[in-house]
């Protein structure tokens, strides 16, 4: 019944809103989004919306804030090209009422390593970042205001088992190649809206923030997420509601059969969902502040009307006293972005987990949360002769119990916020928040060179990371849950990293070269050195990892010849 009511409300909303073009969506790592971000930064404004995916209409709004007449001639050409590409995306067929595009991309890729034994989670280029051997992508636009995408990536089912070998690839391993959709459903979505709003529902990437090593509240760590996103935005205020379904995230045990890890989604309960309300204020072109509230909820109904209320503050949805068949885990974050000038940008995030007010706390406990994290980065973008140069410095801290709670067993699929196990052999282990989980200190320096025509994209990074024993899990049996008795379980006051500290030094180089719009070559080289590997004292580990591949799109080749 709830679903029928919500569907009716959405239909009524769509009917009364004057829909408009520009509803194609872009992720934070798409070249169009990066170009808009660089153009904004060299123009000393904060840049595009940080809750992605965003629409072409939203990117156009950011571009309209840039004084294009003040740009150098070479950069003004980039501005015009980007504005044209988001306003009129490429298409195989286009008419006054319909557009559709088709891409068939083949992308062989090789991976090899030299050094100590590498487990799945040790690879810097994770499963989600690897190329599909074959992908079929279809996107369409109807009446200029409805955009849809359907993508069928073809990957190999079991090749993660080869991580402990010196060489692997994405073509055939033990004859186990099969449609990627059998292992993890394809990307699909529909987007519609106006110049001031957008509604998107589908399966794809979701990200909040401008972190370089990850974001604290919602990070783009997973291969995909099933989510709905409703956004309203103008020059001063933006609101985003996101609803994410996590039933395909299964807590696994090393003894589990690999075939039991198929993604699942059902309208029958119980459901594990995350809801987030994000409020962003652009005080001027140079300063933006956001308040974000979210909660992980296990519930018997997939849709609850209360979730859609933008004024429903969910800080009191905490799991400390949960003893029933469902639980909640709230999280709150604050974000500040500022562009003081000269191509410089400052971005900061602060997150609180299991937040409670004094009157909501259990008797005898202190209400102030200790589970918190912080991220700050400083970046500079320079418009050179042939491309943009970007450099950044970032520092991150997450306390030992961020994203965690004390629940053990019971009806809970996952006890963390949220630890996802994708595919087999723990090939994609990530929190929905910061990529490296709790109990972490990370400092990174890096840069990116992106040519104006997009034909060269070169990046480099150097990172030091310290992981306590409540950092990201290395095995299903590794304990992360707080140990406590009585009222002590309500809050924990460890701020320093816990246990044996794993120290990691990571250096990374990557290059994308596109000699033709239909052909791209990629190469990534990473060296990692760890002390106290897997939080085991006096256990050193080092590994040199390389991936090389290319992508060819015959449809794009036909369009450009």
Write a short abstract of this structure:
The chain is mainly beta and 561 residues long.
What keywords describe this structure?
mainly beta; two-stranded antiparallel ribbon; 21-stranded antiparallel beta sheet; 561 residues; single chain; 40% strand
Overall mean pLDDT: 79
Q: Helical region count?
A: 6
Report the oligomer.
single chain
Which structural class do you get from the secondary structure elements? mainly beta
Q: How is the main sheet built?
A: 21 strands, antiparallel
Q: What share of the residues lie within helices?
A: 10-25%
Percentage of residues in strands: 35-45%
Can you describe what's shown?
The protein has 561 residues and is mostly beta strands. The protein is 11% helix and 40% strand. The strands form four sheets. The protein has a 21-stranded antiparallel sheet. Strands 1-3 form a two-stranded antiparallel ribbon. A hairpin with a 3-residue loop joins strand 10 and strand 11. Helix 3 runs antiparallel to helix 4. The termini are far apart.
């Amino acid at each position: 019944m709830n679903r029928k009511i919500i569907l009716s409300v959405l239909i009524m909303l769509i009917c009364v809103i004057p829909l408009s073009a520009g509803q194609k969506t872009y992720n934070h790592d798409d070249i169009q989004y990066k170009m808009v971000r660089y153009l904004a930064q060299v123009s000393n404004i904060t840049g595009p919306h940080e809750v992605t995916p965003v629409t072409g209409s939203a990117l156009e709004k950011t571009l309209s804030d840039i004084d294009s007449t003040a740009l150098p001639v070479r950069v003004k050409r980039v501005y015009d090209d980007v504005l044209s590409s988001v306003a009129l995306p490429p298409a195989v067929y286009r008419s006054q009422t319909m557009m559709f595009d088709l891409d068939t991309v083949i992308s062989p890729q090789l991976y090899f390593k030299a050094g100590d034994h590498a487990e799945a989670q040790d690879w810097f280029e994770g499963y989600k970042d690897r190329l599909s051997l074959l992908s079929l992508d279809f996107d369409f636009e109807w009446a200029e205001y409805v955009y849809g995408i359907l993508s069928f990536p073809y990957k190999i089912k079991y090749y993660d088992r080869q991580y402990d070998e010196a060489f692997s690839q994405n073509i055939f391993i033990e004859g186990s190649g099969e449609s990627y959709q059998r292992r993890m459903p394809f990307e699909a979505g529909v987007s519609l809206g106006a110049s001031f709003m957008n509604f998107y529902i589908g399966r794809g990437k979701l990200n909040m923030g401008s972190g370089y090593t990850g974001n604290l509240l919602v990070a783009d760590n997973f291969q995909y997420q099933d989510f709905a996103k409703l956004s309203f935005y103008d020059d001063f205020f933006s609101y985003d509601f996101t609803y994410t379904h996590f039933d395909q995230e299964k807590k696994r045990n090393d003894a589990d059969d690999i075939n039991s890890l198929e993604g699942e989604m059902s309208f029958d309960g119980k459901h594990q969902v995350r809801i987030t309300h994000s409020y962003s204020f652009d005080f001027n072109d140079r300063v933006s502040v956001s308040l974000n509230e979210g909660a992980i909820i296990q519930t018997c109904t997939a849709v609850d009307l209360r979730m859609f209320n933008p004024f429903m503050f969910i800080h009191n949805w905490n799991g400390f006293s949960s003893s029933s068949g469902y639980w909640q885990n709230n999280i709150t974050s604050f974000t500040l972005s500022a562009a003081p000038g000269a191509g410089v940008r400052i971005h900061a995030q602060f997150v609180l987990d299991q937040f409670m007010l004094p009157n909501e706390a259990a008797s005898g406990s202190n209400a102030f949360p200790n589970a918190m994290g912080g991220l700050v980065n400083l970046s500079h973008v320079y418009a050179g002769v042939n491309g943009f140069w970007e450099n950044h410095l970032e520092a991150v801290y997450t306390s030992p119990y961020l994203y965690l709670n004390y629940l053990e067993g019971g009806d809970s699929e996952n006890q963390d916020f949220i630890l996802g196990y994708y595919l087999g052999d723990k090939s994609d282990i990530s929190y929905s928040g910061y990529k490296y989980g709790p109990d972490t200190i990370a400092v990174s320096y890096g840069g990116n060179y992106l040519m104006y025509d997009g034909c060269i994209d070169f990046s480099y990074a150097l990172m030091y990371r310290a992981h306590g024993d409540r950092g990201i899990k290395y095995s299903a049996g590794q304990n992360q849950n707080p140990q406590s008795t009585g009222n002590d379980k309500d809050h924990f006051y460890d701020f320093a990293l816990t246990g044996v500290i794993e120290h990691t030094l990571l250096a990374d180089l990557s290059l994308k070269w596109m000699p033709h719009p239909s052909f791209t070559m990629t190469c990534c080289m990473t060296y990692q050195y760890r002390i106290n590997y897997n939080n085991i004292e006096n256990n050193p580990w080092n590994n040199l990892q390389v991936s090389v591949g290319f992508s060819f799109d015959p449809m794009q080749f036909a369009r450009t010849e």
